[in-house]
Automatic annotation (TrEMBL):
<dbReference type="Pfam" id="PF05890">
    <property type="entry name" value="Ebp2"/>
</dbReference>
<comment type="similarity">
    <text>Belongs to the EBP2 family.</text>
</comment>
<keyword id="KW-0690">Ribosome biogenesis</keyword>
<comment type="function">
    <text>Required for the processing of the 27S pre-rRNA.</text>
</comment>
<feature type="compositionally biased region" description="Basic residues">
    <location>
        <begin position="299"/>
        <end position="316"/>
    </location>
</feature>
<keyword id="KW-0175">Coiled coil</keyword>
<dbReference type="GO" id="GO:0005730">
    <property type="term" value="C:nucleolus"/>
</dbReference>
<feature type="region of interest" description="Disordered">
    <location>
        <begin position="223"/>
        <end position="316"/>
    </location>
</feature>
<protein>
    <submittedName>
        <fullName>Probable rRNA-processing protein EBP2 homolog</fullName>
    </submittedName>
</protein>
<dbReference type="GO" id="GO:0042273">
    <property type="term" value="P:ribosomal large subunit biogenesis"/>
</dbReference>
<feature type="coiled-coil region">
    <location>
        <begin position="33"/>
        <end position="60"/>
    </location>
</feature>
<dbReference type="GO" id="GO:0034399">
    <property type="term" value="C:nuclear periphery"/>
</dbReference>
<dbReference type="GO" id="GO:0006364">
    <property type="term" value="P:rRNA processing"/>
</dbReference>
<dbReference type="InterPro" id="IPR008610">
    <property type="entry name" value="Ebp2"/>
</dbReference>
<keyword id="KW-0539">Nucleus</keyword>
<feature type="compositionally biased region" description="Polar residues">
    <location>
        <begin position="271"/>
        <end position="283"/>
    </location>
</feature>
<dbReference type="GO" id="GO:0030687">
    <property type="term" value="C:preribosome, large subunit precursor"/>
</dbReference>
Length: 316
């Protein structure tokens, strides 16, 4: 059986002890035993060659083909300047009033500098647009599209109709989903209200029964809770439709039969009705009684048909 033999490359590696001894004697030096030469990079700004190269690649084209502009910055609008001042003051208040009592420097504020940079780019573009439109008008180049101009669509009408149908379908699906969600929420709320109402009714009934039990056992003589429950029932009945009118049929029945209560002996004479003799005064002018309508209003019909006996006698 062959013994395990290490590679030559592994046996040649110095041990840690040998490296420590070499470092202690000064044989080892930093830089992986090799000194690295530092080279200084020199930058050359050859202006003559740069100008020559620029002249070589420069195109001799008219301005309308290049549309290059070199302009100054347009003046700042007053409202923008005021906005910058307000922003700087607000940032100063935030910085100085925060923890640490930092001293605010507007030139070192990145937010304010970003706002100023964007404003500077906007003003530069504004000045370039003003100068460019002036030059185009001098060259008689139209800068506005005519009112009767119709641009050709990049996509066909069939494709746009498909896109429109797709968008309409998405909107309809979103509306349907939203409606279903609202209905689900309304059902949840209605169910919760119904459960709360039932629990309240059960609690009120339980409370009333407990009070009634106390009255029956003689522990209490207060019966006001019955009147309170009756008043609640009347209010509930009246709150259903306060503008509801009683029909004539219902009014006549109420007048004839009453609203409940004691009915027996309601038509018997009393001492007051017996002593009242106004109906038996023959001197007083009595109102004619109409048996058909059962009221005391006189019948003012002019062309009233005569009775059967009168008509029979009239034929003779």
């Amino acid at each position: 059986m062959n013994d395990f033999v290490l590679n030559d490359s592994e046996t040649d590696v110095d041990s840690d002890e040998e490296l420590q001894e070499a470092f202690a004697k000064g044989i080892l030096k930093p830089g992986l035993n090799e000194e690295i030469e530092k080279t200084v990079k020199t930058y050359v700004n050859n202006v003559a060659e740069l100008k020559a190269k620029l002249k070589e690649i420069e195109l001799k084209l008219p301005w309308i083909e290049k549309l290059d502009l070199i302009t100054t910055v347009a003046p700042m609008a007053p409202d923008v300047a005021l906005q910058i001042e307000e922003t700087a003051q607000r940032r100063k208040n935030v910085k100085e009033n925060s923890k640490g009592n930092q001293k605010y420097d507007p030139t070192q504020d990145p937010i304010l500098n970003e706002f100023k940079r964007e404003n500077l780019i906007h003003r530069q573009a504004q000045a370039a647009v003003i100068d460019g439109i002036k030059r185009l008008k001098d060259l008689n180049v139209p800068t506005r599209r005519p009112d009767d101009f119709f641009a050709e669509m990049a996509k066909s009408d069939e494709h746009m109709q498909k896109v429109r149908k797709n968008l309409m379908a998405k909107q309809a699906a979103q509306a349907r989903t939203e409606k279903v969600r609202q209905l689900r929420e309304q059902k949840k709320i209605a169910k919760k209200v119904q459960i709360d109402t039932k629990l309240k009714q059960v609690a009120e009934k339980k409370h009333m029964l407990e009070q009634l039990k106390r009255v029956r056992k003689g522990k209490s003589t207060d019966l006001d809770f019955l009147e309170d429950n009756k008043g609640k029932g009347n209010n509930k009945a009246n709150s259903k439709d306060p503008r509801a009118k009683v029909s004539k049929k219902r009014a006549m029945k109420d007048k004839k039969f009453g609203f409940g209560g004691k009915k027996k002996g309601s038509k018997l004479n009393t001492r007051d009705s017996t002593n009242q003799m106004d109906d038996f005064n023959s001197s007083a002018k009595k109102k004619p009684f109409n048996f058909k309508t059962k009221n005391f209003k006189p019948n003012n019909k002019k062309n009233q048909r005569p009775g059967k006996s009168k008509r029979r006698n009239a034929k003779r």
